Fold EAL domain-containing protein.
Amino acid sequence: MAAELGRRGLPGDALTIEITEDQTLDVEGQGLDVLRRLAASGVRIAIDDFGSGYAGLAAFRDVPAQVVKIDRGFVTAMLGSHEGHDLVDSMIQLAHRFERRVVAEGVETEAQRAALVELGCDYVQGYLTGRPMPASEVPVTDASRPADRAVVLPGPRPPGQADAAQVLR
Protein backbone atom coordinates (compact mmCIF):
# COMPACT_ATOMS: atom_id res chain seq x y z
CA MET A 1 0.00 0.00 0.00
CA ALA A 2 2.75 2.42 0.92
CA ALA A 3 4.49 1.67 -2.39
CA GLU A 4 1.28 2.37 -4.32
CA LEU A 5 0.84 5.69 -2.53
CA GLY A 6 4.41 6.59 -3.43
CA ARG A 7 3.88 5.57 -7.04
CA ARG A 8 0.93 7.95 -7.21
CA GLY A 9 2.87 10.74 -5.51
CA LEU A 10 0.71 10.71 -2.40
CA PRO A 11 2.00 10.97 1.16
CA GLY A 12 1.12 8.17 3.58
CA ASP A 13 -1.26 10.38 5.49
CA ALA A 14 -3.48 10.67 2.40
CA LEU A 15 -4.88 7.27 3.41
CA THR A 16 -6.70 6.21 6.54
CA ILE A 17 -7.42 2.53 7.13
CA GLU A 18 -10.32 1.81 9.45
CA ILE A 19 -10.48 -1.46 11.31
CA THR A 20 -13.36 -2.32 13.60
CA GLU A 21 -12.67 -3.01 17.22
CA ASP A 22 -13.48 -6.69 16.71
CA GLN A 23 -10.92 -6.87 13.89
CA THR A 24 -8.23 -5.81 16.35
CA LEU A 25 -8.69 -9.20 18.02
CA ASP A 26 -7.43 -10.85 14.83
CA VAL A 27 -4.42 -8.55 14.53
CA GLU A 28 -1.40 -10.24 15.96
CA GLY A 29 1.91 -11.43 14.64
CA GLN A 30 2.24 -10.64 10.94
CA GLY A 31 -0.98 -8.56 10.82
CA LEU A 32 0.25 -6.32 13.61
CA ASP A 33 3.62 -5.97 11.85
CA VAL A 34 1.83 -4.86 8.65
CA LEU A 35 -0.17 -2.24 10.58
CA ARG A 36 3.00 -0.99 12.26
CA ARG A 37 4.81 -0.66 8.91
CA LEU A 38 1.84 1.18 7.41
CA ALA A 39 1.68 3.53 10.41
CA ALA A 40 5.45 4.12 10.15
CA SER A 41 4.97 5.13 6.50
CA GLY A 42 2.42 7.75 7.57
CA VAL A 43 -0.77 5.82 6.79
CA ARG A 44 -3.34 6.58 9.47
CA ILE A 45 -4.99 3.70 11.31
CA ALA A 46 -8.42 4.25 12.87
CA ILE A 47 -10.21 1.91 15.28
CA ASP A 48 -13.87 2.04 14.23
CA ASP A 49 -16.91 1.28 16.42
CA PHE A 50 -14.80 1.60 19.56
CA GLY A 51 -16.52 0.20 22.62
CA SER A 52 -18.99 -2.00 20.74
CA GLY A 53 -16.80 -5.07 20.29
CA TYR A 54 -15.08 -7.64 22.43
CA ALA A 55 -11.49 -6.44 22.15
CA GLY A 56 -9.68 -5.81 25.38
CA LEU A 57 -7.36 -3.03 26.39
CA ALA A 58 -4.33 -5.02 25.22
CA ALA A 59 -5.59 -4.81 21.63
CA PHE A 60 -6.28 -1.08 22.11
CA ARG A 61 -2.72 -0.65 23.40
CA ASP A 62 -1.02 -2.72 20.69
CA VAL A 63 -2.73 -1.53 17.49
CA PRO A 64 -0.79 1.49 16.18
CA ALA A 65 -3.89 3.63 15.68
CA GLN A 66 -3.88 7.40 15.54
CA VAL A 67 -7.68 7.70 15.63
CA VAL A 68 -10.44 6.13 17.74
CA LYS A 69 -14.03 6.33 16.49
CA ILE A 70 -16.55 6.01 19.34
CA ASP A 71 -19.52 3.88 18.33
CA ARG A 72 -22.74 5.80 17.76
CA GLY A 73 -24.58 3.75 20.39
CA PHE A 74 -22.52 5.40 23.11
CA VAL A 75 -23.08 8.86 21.63
CA THR A 76 -26.83 8.26 21.50
CA ALA A 77 -26.93 7.09 25.13
CA MET A 78 -24.62 9.71 26.64
CA LEU A 79 -27.30 12.33 27.22
CA GLY A 80 -29.72 9.88 28.79
CA SER A 81 -27.75 8.93 31.88
CA HIS A 82 -24.80 9.88 34.02
CA GLU A 83 -23.30 6.47 33.31
CA GLY A 84 -23.57 6.97 29.54
CA HIS A 85 -22.00 10.42 29.81
CA ASP A 86 -19.21 9.17 32.06
CA LEU A 87 -18.48 6.24 29.75
CA VAL A 88 -18.02 8.52 26.73
CA ASP A 89 -15.88 10.84 28.86
CA SER A 90 -13.70 7.88 29.91
CA MET A 91 -13.31 6.70 26.31
CA ILE A 92 -12.21 10.16 25.18
CA GLN A 93 -9.75 10.50 28.07
CA LEU A 94 -8.31 7.02 27.45
CA ALA A 95 -7.78 7.74 23.75
CA HIS A 96 -6.13 11.07 24.56
CA ARG A 97 -3.83 9.41 27.10
CA PHE A 98 -2.64 7.23 24.21
CA GLU A 99 -2.24 10.37 22.06
CA ARG A 100 -5.05 9.35 19.72
CA ARG A 101 -7.64 11.63 18.17
CA VAL A 102 -11.30 10.91 18.84
CA VAL A 103 -14.18 10.90 16.37
CA ALA A 104 -17.69 10.58 17.82
CA GLU A 105 -19.94 8.72 15.37
CA GLY A 106 -23.67 9.20 14.97
CA VAL A 107 -23.88 12.79 16.19
CA GLU A 108 -27.35 14.00 15.25
CA THR A 109 -28.16 16.86 17.63
CA GLU A 110 -26.63 20.09 18.77
CA ALA A 111 -26.96 18.87 22.38
CA GLN A 112 -24.75 15.86 21.58
CA ARG A 113 -22.19 18.08 19.84
CA ALA A 114 -22.11 20.51 22.77
CA ALA A 115 -21.61 17.67 25.27
CA LEU A 116 -18.78 16.25 23.15
CA VAL A 117 -17.11 19.68 22.96
CA GLU A 118 -17.27 19.87 26.75
CA LEU A 119 -15.67 16.42 27.03
CA GLY A 120 -12.80 17.36 24.68
CA CYS A 121 -13.78 15.22 21.68
CA ASP A 122 -11.76 16.10 18.58
CA TYR A 123 -14.22 15.46 15.72
CA VAL A 124 -17.86 14.59 15.11
CA GLN A 125 -19.43 12.54 12.35
CA GLY A 126 -23.13 12.12 11.71
CA TYR A 127 -26.31 13.68 10.38
CA LEU A 128 -25.63 16.91 12.26
CA THR A 129 -22.66 17.59 9.98
CA GLY A 130 -23.94 15.99 6.78
CA ARG A 131 -26.09 13.24 5.37
CA PRO A 132 -24.93 10.43 3.09
CA MET A 133 -25.08 11.33 -0.59
CA PRO A 134 -24.04 9.94 -3.96
CA ALA A 135 -20.48 10.76 -4.98
CA SER A 136 -21.81 12.88 -7.83
CA GLU A 137 -23.45 15.22 -5.29
CA VAL A 138 -20.45 15.70 -3.01
CA PRO A 139 -19.37 19.33 -3.23
CA VAL A 140 -15.92 19.94 -4.66
CA THR A 141 -13.65 21.33 -1.97
CA ASP A 142 -10.06 22.37 -1.61
CA ALA A 143 -8.55 19.48 0.38
CA SER A 144 -5.56 21.65 1.27
CA ARG A 145 -7.84 23.79 3.45
CA PRO A 146 -8.46 22.25 6.89
CA ALA A 147 -12.06 23.49 7.00
CA ASP A 148 -12.84 21.37 3.93
CA ARG A 149 -11.54 18.14 5.44
CA ALA A 150 -13.15 17.71 8.84
CA VAL A 151 -15.44 19.15 11.44
CA VAL A 152 -13.13 20.15 14.27
CA LEU A 153 -14.43 20.72 17.75
CA PRO A 154 -12.95 23.53 19.83
CA GLY A 155 -11.40 22.78 23.15
CA PRO A 156 -8.25 21.82 24.97
CA ARG A 157 -6.02 19.08 23.63
CA PRO A 158 -4.06 16.58 25.65
CA PRO A 159 -0.31 17.19 26.02
CA GLY A 160 1.58 16.59 22.81
CA GLN A 161 -1.45 17.00 20.53
CA ALA A 162 -2.06 19.77 18.04
CA ASP A 163 -4.51 22.53 18.71
CA ALA A 164 -8.06 22.44 17.36
CA ALA A 165 -7.09 24.27 14.16
CA GLN A 166 -5.07 21.28 12.96
CA VAL A 167 -7.09 18.43 11.45
CA LEU A 168 -6.62 14.96 10.09
CA ARG A 169 -5.34 14.97 6.55
